[in-house]
Amino acid sequence: MSETKRRARYTLEFKLEAVRLVKGGQVAAVTAKILGIPKQTLENWVRLDGKGQLKGAGDKP
Fold first, then answer.
1. Are 55 and 10 contacting, i.e. CB atoms less than 8 angstroms apart?
2. DSSP H or E stretch at residue 34
């Protein structure tokens, strides 16, 4: 049987702190591992932040 996985939800504050670390010179892969998130997710947040489109878990589109 396949297990259903729930998507993780992160607050805007968490995302902004993660992005700040990467923009401050931390390696994305290391930062993602420390925070327990996929590297691609963190890279997406950095990209969205650069466009001004980063939103938190409770934000409406």
1. no
2. helix 28-35
Q: What is the pLDDT of residues 15-58, one digit of tens each?
A: 999 999 999 999 999 999 999 999 999 999 999 999 999 998 87
The pair of structure tokens assigned to 23 is 């923009």
Any domain includes 57: no
- 2 lies in a domain? no
In the chain, how many domains are there? 1
> Roughly what angle, to the nearest 10 degrees, separates helices 39-51 and 28-35?
110
3-state SS class at 47: helix
Residue 22 lies in a domain: yes
Domain that holds residue 25: 12-51
